[in-house]
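Ticket #4471: structure export looks truncated?
Reporter: QA, pipeline team
Priority: medium

Steps to reproduce: submit the single chain below to the structure queue and open the exported record.
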Amino acid sequence: MGAYILRRLALVIPTLIGVMMVNFLLTQFVPGGPIDQVIAQLEGEGDVFAGISGGGSETIGESDFDTGYQGARGLPPQFLESLRVEFNFARIVCEDGFTGEPDLDEDACFAEDIPVWERFWLMMKGYLQFDFGESYFRSISVVDLVIEKLPVSITLGLWSTVIAYLVSIPLGIRKAVRDGSAFDSITSGIIIVAYAIPGFLFAILLLVLFAGGRYLQWFPLRGLTSDGFEDMTMLRQIGDYLWHITLPVLASTISAFATLTLLTKNSFLDEIKKQYVMTAKAKGLPERRVLYGHVFRNAMLIVIAGFPAVFVGVFFGGSLIIETIFSLDGLGRLSFEAAVSRDYPVIFGTLYVFGLIGLAVGIISDLMYVWIDPRIDFETRQG
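Actual output as written to the record:
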């Protein structure tokens, strides 16, 4: 097992660099870079895409992909040069013999484009040291920005995953034991309908019914806590927190029940039909002992072993629509806003961290398989 883990760890860095390289290169061919965003806001266009769509006379050339902006648009050239330097698209270079501090205000200094390959190398060099830089538009480090958004993602990810497992596993076992009964048919219909309902539509329905729409006002419309949360007692803080997260967590969890419940049911059905179960029953063992003492461990292998990947997927994926509907500011909205504004440090910094965590979770999932079922031996796998 040790050799397998070492092989997997050896592949983490090359895989991560490959993922980062592909995404970095793709951004070089996407119009409307961060400098375009600044120019559009200064000129009152509001959005960079207003200046590059609709049959305008401007064209995007090769230099625009390298520097990330379309043109001067009447702004002072020195201002544009300073933006390129600030966003690390260029560096300040001074003529030979200049002894002062490099500054664009000096006649002997100018902005020199940094090649794409060098920008990628400088970015990855910093990322390998866990230096993700600062957001272009928020004046805050990427790490601090992510930490600021984590409470919302922790809430939605953790509670949604835990509730889905706590409900789906017992329900799936019950459905397997009573396969073909009225209970099985009714619950299957309910979870399939729940799976078919889009999360955002269910979220709106919850707001209308229970959050001050046309009917009841049992829950708040927005946020994780109420005003004056810091002044509450601990018991009231817990109650206030649970009061706020009820609706968004329900909206995030609704579609997770179907897959997990049916996966649990089918796993148990497959195991129940095996010879060792029939042998245990023939020996007179109680059905409950057979089910939870023998079948459970084998049937839950695929369900439990996949828990790390499911949790991280929900935790870091974020739900843009759910966060928007309930006015929550989490990683989902952060990722969307960073993509729209071309905030490259946030985009690539979060991609690097989440990619690294995803690769680590893949290894942890394999270890979970071995821990649950020692018969699995990855040492026999090649590559």
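Status: closed, not a bug. The export was complete when the record was re-opened. Leaving a note from the reviewer for reference: Confidence is low (pLDDT under 50) at residues 48-72.
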